[in-house]
């Protein structure tokens, strides 16, 4: 009935399946929730079930296998995946209107008759990356999708979508996975018990850090912030915070994770101060030792929030980190 390779969200997946069977699932959906909790996989499961030889998303048959490639398939008989591309990471108008992605464009694809006993599923990944022109072209179709066609817009930043797009979609909200659900996936991916505490603390109910390189980068970033608070200069401690110029992800987007980790550290230090619970258990001792050195967190929090908002304007990484690091120093 459900893809056994997919973790969590069972009540939500059950509801989606039930509404689809009753013909009560709207044609435009917005899957919103934290990064790496499986929104995309849940969207794909809806299409996968229809091509599954057992009609169950069994995960074993040829029909299911087509959905399990990495990266996921771009086009199947009932499924089209629209994703950001290039260093700027945008969904450009060529993909939506022209032939860049699929012959005739996405809108024309949506209007073709679905295969027998299937719907047409169009998954728009990282939908907050639709540029203005692409979003505007989609609006009319999202208002009234052709019968049998479902658009599923997937995003961890719903607030960054045009309000006109948001208002045309029913929002389906995803919660983080439980620590147990996330760790079960990590174990299957080869992680070992010795890493569990740190992995769970930093993953926060997501699968973002399933790749060891990503995990080690996050650990390096937490430790870099702690070093900065302890008084080390940015030039010495800041290297793990800087974007990797060779990576395919836009440099400013690479700053998002270290900034979010810093927000987490600030929340945690405040929580320690008032005797509350600490999520970052493995770093508790270090945090406790450093918490008195931190200025009241409201000041750095405001600076980090402003820095996060500025990422879309492609700021210089060094300048931005310098400003944030400065806000961690003693108040003047
Ligand atoms: Zn199957």
User: Order of strands across the widest beta sheet?
Assistant: 2-3-4-5-1-6
Bound molecules: zinc ion
Based on the structure given, which CATH architecture of the largest domain is correct?
3-Layer(aba) Sandwich
- What is the number of independent domains? 2
What share of the residues does DSSP label as strand, in percent? Answer: 5-15%
Unreliable runs, pLDDT <50, ≥5 residues?
none
How do the helices and strands follow one another from N- to C-terminus? HEHHEEHHEHEHEHHHHHHHHH
Textual characterization of the structure:
- With 332 residues, this protein is α/β, with parallel strands linked by helices.
- The protein has 2 domains: 164 residues, 3-Layer(aba) Sandwich (Rossmann fold); 117 residues, no CATH class.
- Helices cover 45% and strands 8% of the residues.
- It has 16 helices and 6 strands.
- Strands 2-3-4-5-1-6 form a 6-stranded mixed sheet.
- Strand 4, helix 6 and strand 5 form a beta-alpha-beta unit.
- Helix 10 crosses helix 13, helix 13 packs antiparallel against helix 15 and helix 15 packs antiparallel against helix 16.
- The longest helix is centred in the middle third of the chain and has 18 residues.
- It is globular, with a radius of gyration of 22 Å.
- It binds zinc ion.
- Zinc ion binds next to helix 3.
How is this fold's topology laid out?
Layout: H1 10-21, E1 28-32, H2 39-51, H3 62-65, E2 75-76, E3 79-82, H4 93-97, H5 106-111, E4 120-124, H6 132-143, E5 149-155, H7 163-166, E6 170-173, H8 179-188, H9 196-203, H10 212-229, H11 234-237, H12 251-254, H13 256-273, H14 284-290, H15 298-310, H16 317-327
Parallel strand pairs: 1-5, 1-6, 3-4, 4-5
Antiparallel strand pairs: 2-3
The site of zinc ion has 8 residues, from helix 3.
């Amino acid at each position: 009935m459900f893809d056994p390779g997919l973790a969590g969200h069972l009540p939500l997946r059950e509801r989606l399946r039930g509404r689809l069977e009753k013909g009560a699932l709207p044609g435009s959906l917005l899957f919103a929730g934290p990064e790496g909790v499986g929104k995309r996989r849940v969207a794909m499961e809806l299409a996968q079930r229809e091509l599954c030889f057992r009609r169950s998303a069994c995960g074993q048959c040829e029909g299911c296998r087509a959905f399990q490639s990495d990266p996921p398939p771009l086009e199947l008989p009932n499924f089209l995946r629209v994703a950001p591309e290039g260093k700027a990471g945008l969904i450009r108008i060529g993909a939506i209107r022209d032939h860049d992605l699929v012959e005739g464009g996405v809108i024309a694809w949506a209007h073709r008759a679905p295969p027998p006993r299937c719907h047409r599923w169009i998954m728009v990944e990282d939908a907050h990356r639709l540029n203005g022109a692409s979003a505007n072209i989609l609006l009319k179709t999202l208002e009234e999708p052709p019968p049998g066609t479902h658009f599923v817009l997937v995003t961890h930043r719903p607030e960054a979508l045009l309000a006109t797009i948001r208002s045309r979609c029913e929002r389906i909200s995803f919660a983080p996975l439980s620590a147990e659900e996330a760790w079960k996936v990590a174990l299957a991916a080869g992680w070992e018990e010795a890493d569990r505490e740190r992995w769970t603390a930093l993953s926060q109910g997501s699968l973002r850090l399933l790749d060891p390189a990503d995990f080690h980068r996050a650990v390096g970033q937490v430790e870099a912030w702690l070093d900065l608070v302890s008084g080390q200069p940015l030039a010495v401690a800041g290297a793990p915070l800087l974007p990797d110029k060779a990576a395919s992800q836009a440099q400013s987007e690479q700053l998002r994770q270290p900034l979010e980790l810093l927000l987490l550290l600030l929340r945690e230090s405040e929580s320690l101060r008032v005797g509350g619970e600490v999520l970052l258990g493995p770093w508790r001792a270090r945090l406790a030792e450093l918490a008195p050195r931190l200025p009241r967190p409201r000041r750095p929090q405001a600076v980090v929030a402003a820095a996060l908002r500025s990422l879309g304007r492609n700021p210089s990484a060094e300048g931005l980190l310098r400003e944030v690091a400065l806000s961690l120093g003693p108040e003047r």
